[in-house]
Amino acid sequence: MTRAHTEHGIERKQQLLDAAERLFAARGYAATRISDICAAAGVAKGLFYWYFPTKESLFEELVRTMRLALRRAQAAAMDPQADAAMRIRQGAEASVRFMAEHQPYFALLDVERTDDTMAAVLQEGSDVYAADVRKLVVEAQEHGLVADGDPAFYTVGVMGAVSSFSHAHRRGRLTMSIDELAPLVGDWVTQALTGRAVPQDSARDVRRPG
Q1: What pLDDT band is residue 127 in, cutting at 50, 70 and 90?
Q2: CB neighbours of 53 closer than 8 A, spacing ≥ 6?
Q3: pLDDT on residue 6
Q4: pTM for the model
Q5: DSSP element (H, E) containing 116
Q6: d(Cα 167, Cα 169) in Å, to the nearest integer?
Q7: Are residues 93 and 145 both part of a single domain?
Q8: Helix 151-170 and helix 116-142: axis angle, to 10°?
Q9: For residue range 29-77, what is the model confidence (pLDDT) as tens digits?
Q10: CA distances (Å), 174 to each of 60, 146, 165, 167, 207, in order?
Q11: How many helices (H) and strands (E) does the chain have?
Q12: Nearest-angstrom CA–CA distance, 24 and 104
């Protein structure tokens, strides 16, 4: 059933999602009970069921909420006047920053991705991200910015770079600041797609030694 929520109700719902995110990351999904989430959010258990019929439905809502927030961060970072290759770069950098800002959530996904119960909703998020990147790759190819080839190949490369570098930073294998890492991932993605480390029309003035 679709429920209409007041502004206060939306805030309560977000409190539950925020509490669940913290607890899932700290304890794991299976070990976190609905009563734990309610206690952490400071709401009665009955209120939980007003918003979510099950713990699984809350997890699905959490994933979709974060996916929407990520897409908004990517969109906000992209210059609509820039070419497609630049927008891919800007989206990649924004994604790295977003993943660093929400480290507990993405650490949770590292674990729960192996759970068959959660795989479908997580795959849904990956598919949406892939479709967004692929659309930009195709546009870049149409304008001669990216070589001809299977767009899916380039899409996997962009997503893999963002995910792998973010994971390494999250696990402490990369100790640089996120302000250093994000542009470097942007360089990596741009070089892989276009053959040059920094787009000539980049709005940033980036200089490397030598």
Answers
A1: confident
A2: none
A3: 66
A4: 0.81
A5: helix 116-142
A6: 5
A7: yes
A8: 120
A9: 889 999 999 999 999 899 999 999 999 999 889 988 888 999 999 999 9
A10: 30, 29, 8, 9, 21
A11: 9, 0
A12: 9
Instruction: Give rounded-to-5 percent helix, strand, coil for the chain.
Output: 70, 0, 30
Contact 21, 62 (CB under 8 A): yes
State the Cα–Cα distance between residues 201 and 97, nearest whole angstrom: 22
> Would you say residue 204 lies in a domain?
no
Q: Give me the domain span that covers residue 175.
A: 63-194
Task: For tokens 């930073």, name the residue.
Answer: 169
Q: Record the tokens describing residue 187, joined without a space.
A: 């360089």
Closest CA to 78 of 67, 89, 63: 89
Q: In this structure, what token pair is assigned to residue 201?
A: 């029309």
Q: Is residue 106 part of a domain?
A: yes
If asked whether residues 129 and 179 sit together in one domain, one would say: yes
Contacts with 149 (C-beta within 8 Å, 6 or more apart), sequence order: 141
